[in-house]
Amino acid sequence: MEKRVMTDGKRRRGLAAVAALLGGVLTLGACGGGDDGDDAKNDGSGSQSQVDKAAAKDASDAHIKITPKTGKTGAGINSDTQVKVSGGKLTSVKMTAAATGSTVAGSISPDGTTWKPNGQLERSTQYKIAASAKDSKGRKATEHSSFTTISPTNSVIGNFTPEDGSTVGVGMPVSINFDKQVSNKKAVESHIKVTSSSGQQVVGHWFSPTRLDLRPKDYWKANSTVTMKMKLDGVEASPGVKGVQDKTVTFKVGRSQVSTVDAKTKMMKVVRDGKTLKTIKISAGSPENTTYNGQMVISEKFKETRMNGATVGFKGDDGKGEYDIKDVPHAMRLSTSGTFIHGNYWGAKSIFGNQNTSHGCVGLSDTKGAGDPNTDGAWFYNNTQIGDVVVVKNSADETVKPDNGLNGWNMDWNEWVAGSAVGA
């Protein structure tokens, strides 16, 4: 068989053909290629780079930026999300929850350059955003993003009292209970500001890694307005755990009412705005179950409630509660551990003002069903609001612990300030 030798010229022509073939394959696989794309546009009158430049020259001047960027995880649920455009105006923004397709309401700014959600997002949720804009020549630009918000595992929530818009008594502190332990207390506390229209200085105190209370040195001034700004979104509360709240809460302080219970004389004096409003006969804790001394803030009110001794440690030999009263009238909580000031219909009327008989609560004469407005129990209930102060004195018991309820007023001011992570 004859061996044929390829000349240099033929070799060069063959390589050129292979290169052309490969070039065609690469061209077909490139962005913007099509059946009549490059060949139709580049017919010898200009190079491919010239065609690209012409297309770029005709592109919209509107440039859209979406935050968070696509693929972001652990995004905040308040202020992290927004759409911005330069060189044009937004024409539409659609944000949806990926799993359900539900639309997130949002608003485009009056000048058309920004968009933000109207409310707080959900945690552990993937969201998608599609945004469109036009420049001054009407040329359209689009942008997309998909991201996931922070999970409950990696975020912390502070549940607070009092509620926004409420009216409370002069003893009501701001109390925040976090759903996870806070190790970076200074970072968290420095992003919580409480101010009063009275100008009183407000300082926080950490009772535990999950509880922060804030109050002034003395009771709030009557008829003042208190504002709390909680700017915790993105603040690292503990390693790998961030805050997600961005809230402003405002509440009113009403008239000043402080009621003093004298366990020895078995009388209570109700003082409002410096004047004695009423003196009421009471029955405090028995010698075996004395009532706490100290300043206690009313934190809850119930027209009727059940009181079972077994829930607070008063169990009989059979393991059941020493008492179980299902309809205690006009009950107002003074401590977390179960101290109340409440109506009493089961005791003889003669005990009030004469004998201490309770398991530690302060009892007032009342009727079954809480329906008689003329009883002492009903009167006090109807003339009391959350945050009013009840002071107990001359009892044989100890002073209530400052963290047992909203009772931080029983702590010396210097000790209170020492419990702040940021100081006075």
TrEMBL record:
Sequence intervals crossing the membrane: none
Pathway the protein takes part in: Cell wall biogenesis; peptidoglycan biosynthesis
Keyword Chloroplast applies: no
Keywords: Acyltransferase, Cell shape, Cell wall biogenesis/degradation, Peptidoglycan synthesis, Signal, Transferase
Matching Pfam families: Big_10, YkuD
Region annotation (Disordered) ranges: 34-81
Source superkingdom: Bacteria
Active site: H342, C361
Biased composition range(s): Basic and acidic residues: 54-64
Gene3D superfamilies listed in its UniProt record: 2.60.40.3710, 2.60.40.3780, L,D-transpeptidase catalytic domain-like
Signal peptide start and end residues: 1-30
Domain L,D-TPase catalytic, first and last residues per copy: 257-393
Record protein name field: L,D-transpeptidase family protein
Native source species: Streptomyces coffeae
Lineage of producing organism: Bacteria, Bacillati, Actinomycetota, Actinomycetes, Kitasatosporales
